[in-house]
């Protein structure tokens, strides 16, 4: 249905920069998630290694790709995607979800990068640093046999904790016969990741003691989730139990 | 002089030292240092004869190194004697050697240029006595996390140590001012100096942050001694407590030379111990500021007698001549000289006494009404402060040079502080260098979350 409309639109985009004109309102057709770029624009390739590969190592397709990119139009890279070796897409996503009102500076400083002019120096201002320091404390207090088991890398802890929080099966409200039933449904990967992060953030925001700062609470929750304990894991288990209980309704799902 | 010639000069002096050094450790260290300094292509600039002599002599030294037991060579880093020989055999081919980040020389008095860039550790017990206050808060966190306190030996501190070792105690006290950009290591250099002086048994008068005395004072009393001035009982009593911890043994040796009357019923007689004055200040908080004033006056008077050496270390000395944020009851601002603590401290920092040294640090963080970019003495001290401190020896503390940067990264890697997998790679190190611009403070904050 939308396809023929798109074709006519493409005819219009002979304008200079290939940017779609704003006059695109058609009755009965609302676009969700549209982009100012027309379809011939390619996504930018941020990875430095891709360009550094010597000519000999590249396969035919990759050589073709490279040649093609020289003539194609490429979208601008978003400001948050850097070519840094330390970049982690999951951390960026989490920071974005923690952000309130567009205050990325604050969200980032709570999560990773510390702000230079912060007045309170004597407590770790960032979650990752707090996680690291707690683990180091445990490491030094532990005996040599236990030391090998203690994980000190905040990134592995973060990834593992969120993976532990991901539900396997989810519930979806389906309208049947005038009533909404909670039907167990398989979730896609990105939905699961989203749910894990969302639960983590809501948990830390709502159940926080009054004077405790977010990094401290988050680091606490992350460490508990890493060990498969804590309120977020409990919520995941609750979700699983509900899905198990509503097993009979599974045939309400039609997809 | 072009840099190549300069480095050749350095190499030659080192080479001379190597020839004449008597200790085996010194020889081994100089050998390692020569390897470190000699980069690609430097040998070609030399006349062939000296290169030949150098290499022949190095082989002689290497044979001596082989006779050393590994224990001697181990503290210099992870290079075993075999790899030393391998290095030489490859005709000093300029591969970058593993950076050495630690030294076992824990006595600041023995720190020389060869230790530059290396970390030495301070015993944690000493840290509590020498530094009850005055360490940067992030350093304290690092101490707690690593369970050890390590300072890097850097050029400004070495320069200052050299000056202090050659002070003439009959001349008036020399003022040294450490200045530099934010985060370059002024406070930690000051701590290095204080550790040295504490080891040499000097009396240490350490004011951790001058800015704390000119802002956020909750209780300001009118001074009993002089109606125009103001007392700060809390700050003064806290400082006296820390002063007592740092200089326990001197408090029972120094006797005051004048009678001081606290109020109608209490007074301190001439000839009683300084410890008594300090106790009075700690217990009776109302008289704490006056107690501080007495302590400063007596110490200044008696340091000239030669019983002890006095080190006046003030961090954030630009607070003494700036503006304050404190106000009187009628909301009119108070100038710094109207605060009794500041007034007495200014007298201390004047160079009209002898028998010690004055080491000062400028600081923009925490300063009041000064632009963020200001870091030079003239900008931060203002005309009044500069004239009061003139003449002084300025010592610039700058960012890490490549060797120090490598050493710092190596130190973090040894303590497994850098946990990110990519931080161990060359790419990661280059990125850290770029992001921090070799600024010690920034680097520390970067490595905290990696």
From TrEMBL, chain A:
Give UniProt keywords alphabetically: Mitochondrion, Ribonucleoprotein, Ribosomal protein, Transit peptide
Alphabetized Pfam families for the sequence? Ribosomal_S7
Mention any one GO cellular component term assigned to this protein in its UniProt record: mitochondrial inner membrane
- Give the family, as the similarity comment puts it: Belongs to the universal ribosomal protein uS7 family.
Record lineage: Eukaryota, Metazoa, Chordata, Craniata, Vertebrata
Gene Ontology BP terms: translation
- Predominantly, its location class is mitochondrion
Query: What InterPro entries is this protein classified in?
Result: Ribosomal_uS7, Ribosomal_uS7_dom, Ribosomal_uS7_dom_sf
Which domain of life does this protein belong to? Eukaryota
Question: Which named protein is this?
Answer: Small ribosomal subunit protein uS7m
Spell out the subcellular localization from the entry.
Answer: Mitochondrion
CDD domains recorded = uS7_Mitochondria_Mammalian (cd14870)
Query: Ranges for the Small ribosomal subunit protein uS7 domain?
Result: 81-247
Q: Does the keyword Mitochondrion apply?
A: yes
Automatic annotation (TrEMBL), chain B:
- Give GO terms for biological process: apoptotic process
Recorded GO cellular component terms are: mitochondrial small ribosomal subunit
Q: Where is this region: Disordered?
A: 92-118
- Where in or outside the cell? Mitochondrion
Q: Where is this chain compositionally biased, Polar residues type? A: 92-103
Superkingdom of origin organism: Eukaryota
Task: Specify one Pfam family.
Answer: DAP3
What InterPro entries does this protein's entry cite? P-loop_NTPase, Ribosomal_mS29, Ribosomal_mS29_met
* GO MF, any single term: structural constituent of ribosome
**Keywords linked to the UniProt accession:** Mitochondrion, Ribonucleoprotein, Ribosomal protein, Transit peptide
Q: Where is the composition biased (Basic and acidic residues)?
A: 104-118
Entry's family note: Belongs to the mitochondrion-specific ribosomal protein mS29 family.
Protein name per its UniProtKB record:
Small ribosomal subunit protein mS29
């Amino acid at each position: 249905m939308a396809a023929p409309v798109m074709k006519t639109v493409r005819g219009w985009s002979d304008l200079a920069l290939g940017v779609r004109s704003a006059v695109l309102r058609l009755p009965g057709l609302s676009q969700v998630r549209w982009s100012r770029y027309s379809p011939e624009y390619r996504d930018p390739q941020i990875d430095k290694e891709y360009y550094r590969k010597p000519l000999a190592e590249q396969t035919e397709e990759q050589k073709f790709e490279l040649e093609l990119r020289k003539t194609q139009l490429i979208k601008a890279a978003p400001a948050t995607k850097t070519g840094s070796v330390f970049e982690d897409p999951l951390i960026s996503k989490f920071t974005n979800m923690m952000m309130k009102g567009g205050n990325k500076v604050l969200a980032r400083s709570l999560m990773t990068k510390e702000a230079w002019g912060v007045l309170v120096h004597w407590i770790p201002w960032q979650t990752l640093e707090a996680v690291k320091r707690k683990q180091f404390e445990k490491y030094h207090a532990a005996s040599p046999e236990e030391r090998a088991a203690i994980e000190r890398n905040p990134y592995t802890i973060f990834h593992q904790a969120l993976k532990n929080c991901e539900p396997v099966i989810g519930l979806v409200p389906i309208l049947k016969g005038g009533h909404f039933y909670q039907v167990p449904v398989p979730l896609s990967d990105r939905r699961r990741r989203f749910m894990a992060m969302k639960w983590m953030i809501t948990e830390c925001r709502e159940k926080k003691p009054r004077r405790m700062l977010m990094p401290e609470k988050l680091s606490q929750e992350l460490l508990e989730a890493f060990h498969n304990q804590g309120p977020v894991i409990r919520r995941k288990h609750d979700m699983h139990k509900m899905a198990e209980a509503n097993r009979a309704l599974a045939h309400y799902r039609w997809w | 002089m072009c840099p190549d010639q300069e480095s050749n000069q350095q190499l030659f002096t080192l080479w001379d030292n190597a020839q004449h050094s008597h200790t085996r450790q010194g020889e081994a260290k100089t050998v390692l240092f020569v390897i470190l300094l000699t980069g690609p292509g430097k040998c070609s600039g030399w006349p062939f004869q000296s290169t030949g002599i150098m290499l022949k002599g190095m082989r002689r030294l290497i044979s001596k190194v082989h006779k050393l037991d590994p224990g001697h060579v181990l503290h210099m880093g992870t290079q075993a004697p075999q790899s030393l020989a391998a290095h030489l055999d490859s005709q000093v081919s300029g591969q970058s050697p593993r950076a050495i980040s630690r030294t076992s020389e824990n006595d600041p008095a023995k720190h020389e240029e060869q230790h530059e860039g290396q970390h030495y550790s301070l015993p944690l017990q000493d840290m509590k006595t020498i530094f009850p206050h005055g360490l940067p808060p992030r350093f304290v966190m690092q101490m707690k996390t690593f369970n050890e306190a390590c300072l890097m030996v850097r050029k400004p501190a070495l320069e200052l140590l050299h000056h202090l070792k050659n002070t003439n105690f009959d001349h008036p006290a020399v003022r040294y001012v450490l200045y530099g950009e934010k985060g370059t290591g002024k406070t930690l250099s000051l701590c290095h100096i204080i550790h040295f002086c504490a080891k040499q048994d000097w009396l240490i008068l350490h004011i951790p942050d001058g800015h704390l005395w000119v802002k956020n004072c909750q209780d300001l009393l009118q001074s009993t001694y002089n109606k125009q001035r103001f007392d700060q009982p809390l700050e003064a009593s806290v400082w006296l407590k820390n002063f007592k911890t740092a200089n326990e043994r001197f408090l029972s040796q120094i006797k005051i030379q004048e009678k001081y009357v606290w109020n109608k019923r209490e007074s301190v007689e001439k000839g009683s111990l300084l410890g008594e004055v300090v106790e009075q200040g700690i217990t009776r908080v109302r008289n704490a500021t006056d107690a501080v004033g007495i302590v400063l006056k007596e110490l200044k008077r008696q340091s000239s007698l030669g019983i002890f050496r006095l080190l006046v270390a003030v961090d954030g000395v630009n607070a003494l001549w700036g503006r304050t944020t404190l106000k009187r009851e009628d909301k009119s601002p108070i100038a710094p000289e109207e605060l009794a603590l500041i007034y007495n401290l200014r007298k201390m920092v004047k160079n009209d006494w002898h028998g010690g040294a004055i080491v000062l640090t400028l600081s923009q963080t925490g300063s009041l009404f000064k632009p963020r970019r200001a870091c030079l003495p003239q900008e931060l001290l203002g005309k009044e402060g500069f004239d009061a401190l003139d003449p002084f020896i300025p010592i610039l503390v700058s960012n890490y040079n490549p060797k120090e940067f490598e050493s710092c990264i190596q130190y973090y890697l040894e303590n497994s502080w850098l946990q990110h997998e990519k931080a161990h790679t060359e790419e990661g190190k280059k990125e850290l260098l770029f992001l921090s611009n070799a600024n010690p403070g920034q680097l520390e904050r970067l490595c905290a979350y990696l």
